[in-house]
């Protein structure tokens, strides 16, 4: 199998290209002419301070925000993503930082929200959805038990696993993970890391937003660093050190550039 | 995703009797309060409260508010409010009254009491209500004007549109077939009521059986058989008991004699006839069943509750929450129109003050019935039971002879107290 790095070297068409994306809110450019891309089986880390524009950038891809200018290409074809339904139809799945769970519904209802399994008569099939939910949770979080309680009754880690299950259940090809380990303990964080490796091996392309430089160094193939809405640069993880990444985040300088 | 590793289903131990029956404790509390209320009034009125006659009247008085309360559940669950339901009811009632007394008889030239009059009137009313509701929903969803403001405006607008349409006059008498929707003028009679009661019982038992089978098919835990049996007995008892009571209310012999005279027959000596189920109650039951199915078993219902629980999550899950708002208010408008049919038919005419203060009764019924104003929680049966409790309180006090101002003081206080008890209860059980 060709690695993402080889694919890039061959000049293959990326699975996702976001070209010259700009979006502003009330005169403030949250994302300013940023371009990133992603190959199958590749994990690209998005790094930057709070407010650097990482979440805004990926929300354009997931359909939550509409970009002011720029273009999105999937497998080389230009696509219009104006709402989350469009994104889902392109097999783009997102794990939001806020998890985006309806607290009053149970795990299965959240897992299938917007894509319910229905019976022949068009009614929602709760029993089938719960059975499917039990299957996937058995893989992701074998200790999960609270299937018949609203997700407000779940712990942070359990809620996170529901959000992750929702993203991976529907055969995602492109996965966006916005700080997936923020609410997790060390053991669960390790599980997420293993899951990312597993998904990567299946050829799923992943955008990973994370504050933890070490996690990015460990999990990602490349890293794109943003500062004040602009792209500082995209680097190959093999070519840089933790300190290089940190200086990109803090100083906004690419490695090799003079630090003035 | 082909891995079939499934979660082990742990049998839950240590469950009390209510959990074994899988009954909603909150619902039990409401039923308990309702029973205490009824028995209390019955004692004070020397047994006049719990007569078939009074139960019959109570039931038909509750229908109009209960129909709207079931729609209000959806509105409140999605964190909106509708202050215009009483006014909307008045407009729908006015439109229907004008249709059956002016449009069909004079404009279409079909005369009074033509067989198609009621059909046209009801259809025109339902379309009017649905369109006005959808318009409210469009302003809330797409123009993002708060529902409180849209419907506060609607409250003034539609109350006075009704006034304008009828010049403030009482319009009546209404079409004779149309009036059958009001309650006492349209009942099924004893035998048909029993047949319907038995059919309903069989359907209810089948539903219980099917849900158990569906759970077993997926190897989910089920209730012990004795608990299913107890539920079956309670459900059948409630349905058949209700039909029995309504059947026991006998048509007064003089009225019966007039009915026979009208048909040119002589009433047999000693004949008695029960009223049976009123058509308006059947409408309410149909609304309750359909709305419950919508709430629990359709995507629309799932999206309504998801949006109430977390509007952002619903939006990010690809739910078109704006269109959803239009649908919810359209349903509310439709149900207002349906209530208008029942309310004006019960009064036998359209009066200018029809539906006055109904918005408050409807909201109170939904809230007493456990609908959380913070959104995400509420049941249709709770709202209907809430409407029944409010109506019982009101007419019980009237029977006892409580002065009108005190009646409203009590109802208002009960509303606040009920919500407080609910807050305490939810904190105790740890729900949100």
How do you describe this structure in short?
The complex is a heterodimer of chains A (260) and B (432). Chain A has 260 residues and is an alpha/beta fold.
Description:
- The complex is a heterodimer of chains A (260) and B (432).
- Chain A is of the alpha/beta class.
- Chain A folds into 2 domains: 1-91 and 172-260, P-loop containing nucleotide triphosphate hydrolases (Rossmann fold); 101-171, no CATH class.
- In chain A, 34% of the residues lie in helices and 24% in strands.
- Chain A has helices at 4-10, 54-62, 84-89, 107-111, 126-140, 156-169, 186-201, 213-219, 242-251, and strands at 16-25, 28-38, 43-47, 69-74, 77-79, 92-95, 174-178, 205-209, 222-227, 230-236.
- In chain A, helix 5 (126-140) packs across helix 6.
- Chain A is globular.
- With 432 residues, chain B is mostly helical.
- Chain B has a domain at 25-40 and 55-186 and 278-429: ABC transporter involved in vitamin B12 uptake, BtuC.
- Chain B is 70% helix and 0% strand.
- Chain B has helices spanning 17-21, 25-44, 52-77, 85-107, 117-141, 147-166, 190-217, 225-248, 253-262, 279-297, 299-309, 311-316, 321-347, 358-368, 380-400, 404-429.
- In chain B, helix 3 (52-77) packs parallel to helix 10.
- Chain B is globular, with a radius of gyration of 23 Å.
- Mean pLDDT of chain B is 88; it is low at 1-5 and 10-14.
- The A-B interface holds A 62-64, 83-85, 88, 94, 96, 98-105, 109-110, 113-116, 118, 122-124, 126-128, 130-131, 134-139, 142, 144-145, 147, 150, 152-153, 168-169, 171 and B 1, 3-7, 9-10, 214-215, 217-218, 220, 293, 297-299, 302-303, 305-310, 312-320, 376-377, 430-432.
- Chain A: It holds the Pfam family ABC_tran.
């Amino acid at each position: 199998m060709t690695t993402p790095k080889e694919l890039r070297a061959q000049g293959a068409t990326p699975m996702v290209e976001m070209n010259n994306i700009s979006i502003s809110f009330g005169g403030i450019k949250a994302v300013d002419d940023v371009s990133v891309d992603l190959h199958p089986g590749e994990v690209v880390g998005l790094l930057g301070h709070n407010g650097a524009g990482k979440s805004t950038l990926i929300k354009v891809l997931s359909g939550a925000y509409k970009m002011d200018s720029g273009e999105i290409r999937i497998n080389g074809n230009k696509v219009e993503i104006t709402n989350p339904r469009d994104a889902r139809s392109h097999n783009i799945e997102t794990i939001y930082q806020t998890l985006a769970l309806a607290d009053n519904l149970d795990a299965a209802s959240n897992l299938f929200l917007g894509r319910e399994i229905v019976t022949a008569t068009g009614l929602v099939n709760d029993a089938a959805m719960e059975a499917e939910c039990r299957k996937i949770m058995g893989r992701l979080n074998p200790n999960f038990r609270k299937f018949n309680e609203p997700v407000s009754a779940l712990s942070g880690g359990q809620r996170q696993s529901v959000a992750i299950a929702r993203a991976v259940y529907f055969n995602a090809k492109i996965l966006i993970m916005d700080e997936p380990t923020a609410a997790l303990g060390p053991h669960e964080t390790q599980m997420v890391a293993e899951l990312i490796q597993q998904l990567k091996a299946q050829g799923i392309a992943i955008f990973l937003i994370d504050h933890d430089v070490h996690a990015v160094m460990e999990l990602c193939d490349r890293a794109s660093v943003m500062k004040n809405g602009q792209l500082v640069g995209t680097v190959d993880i093999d070519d840089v050190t933790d300190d290089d990444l940190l200086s990109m985040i803090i100083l906004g300088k690419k490695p090799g550039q003079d630090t003035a | 995703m082909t891995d079939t590793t499934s979660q082990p289903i742990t049998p839950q131990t240590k469950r009390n009797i209510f959990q074994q029956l899988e009954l909603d404790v909150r619902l039990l509390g409401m039923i308990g309060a309702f029973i205490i209320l009824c028995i209390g009034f019955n004692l004070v009125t020397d047994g006049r409260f719990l007569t078939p006659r009074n139960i019959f009247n109570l039931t038909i008085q509750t229908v109009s508010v209960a129909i709207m309360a079931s729609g209000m559940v959806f509105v409140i669950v999605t964190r909106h409010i509708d202050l215009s339901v009483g006014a909307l009811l008045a407009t729908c009632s006015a439109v229907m009254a004008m249709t059956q007394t002016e449009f069909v008889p004079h404009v279409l030239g079909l005369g009074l009491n033509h067989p198609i009059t009621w059909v046209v009137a009801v259809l025109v009313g339902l379309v009017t209500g649905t369109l006005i509701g959808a318009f409210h929903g469009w302003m809330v969803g797409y123009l993002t004007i708060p529902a409180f403001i849209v419907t506060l405006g609607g409250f003034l607008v539609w109350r006075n549109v009704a006034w304008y349409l009828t010049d403030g006059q009482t319009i009546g008498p209404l079409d004779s077939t149309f009036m059958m929707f009001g309650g006492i003028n349209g009942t099924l009679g004893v035998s048909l009521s029993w047949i319907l009661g038995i059919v309903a019982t069989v359907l209810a038992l089948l539903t219980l059986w099917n849900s158990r089978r569906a759970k077993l098919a997926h190897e989910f835990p089920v209730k012990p058989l004795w608990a299913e049996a107890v539920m079956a007995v309670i459900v059948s008892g409630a349905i058949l008991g209700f039909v029995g009571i309504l059947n026991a209310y006998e048509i007064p012999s003089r009225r019966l004699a007039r009915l026979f005279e009208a048909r040119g027959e002589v009433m047999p000596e000693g004949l008695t006839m029960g009223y049976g189920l009123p058509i308006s109650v059947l409408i309410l039951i149909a609304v309750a069943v359909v709305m419950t199915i919508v709430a629990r078993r359709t995507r629309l219902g799932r999206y309504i509750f998801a949006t109430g629980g977390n509007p952002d999550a619903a939006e990010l899950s690809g739910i078109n929450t704006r269109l959803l708002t239009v649908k919810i208010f359209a349903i509310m408008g439709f149900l207002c129109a349906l209530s208008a049919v029942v309310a004006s038919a019960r009064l036998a005419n359209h009066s200018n003050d029809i539906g006055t203060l109904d918005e408050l009764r409807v909201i109170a019924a939904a809230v007493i019935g456990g609908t959380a104003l913070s959104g995400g929680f509420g049941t249709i049966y709770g709202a209907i039971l809430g409407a029944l409790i409010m109506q019982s309180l009101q007419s019980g006090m009237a029977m006892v002879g409580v002065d009108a101002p005190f009646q409203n003081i009590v109802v208002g206080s009960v509303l606040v107290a009920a919500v407080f008890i609910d807050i305490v209860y939810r904190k105790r059980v740890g729900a949100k």
